[in-house]
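Researcher:
Attend to token order:
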Amino acid sequence: MHNFFLLIYYAFAQFIPMQPVPGWRIGYALRTFLCRKILKSTGSEIVCKDRCYFGRGDRLTVGNRSQLGQNARLNGTITIGRDVIMGPDVVMMSTSHGYERTDLPINKQEKAEKPITIGDDVWIGTRVIILPGVTIGSHSIIGAGAVVTKSFPEFSVLGGNPAKLIKQRASV
């Protein structure tokens, strides 16, 4: 059944606009239903916006009330916490090519995977790229266009390429 739901998602459901007719939420409802069947784990009230790509989805976990952004590309083992919002065109890649050996072309070297973890209540801006092995602490904000190459603690505000700590949000 998993493959059947993948086929429906990638052949049809991913292309339904978010709200083709004002007040209708057909695209959201269908994609949410399919995500519940496809992804490793989903919380309640998740949102999957149009043209989101997550491969087979069997290594993606999404917490309650979190969003998968429009045109997002999520690849590998990724855990997204609760109440996470995501702008369009976000890329999270937990896999990478090996490059250590110089006697072998890169495309012949073993691939490595380092899981990505996104805490609760995180805002991921438009076109953010998150690389393998990164953990983003809860209550953080990642500014648009940031390339996140290392982990950051809770309440961080990040931006830039490579992303750096801009400031700490005041914890309550």
Remarks:
- The mean pLDDT is 93.
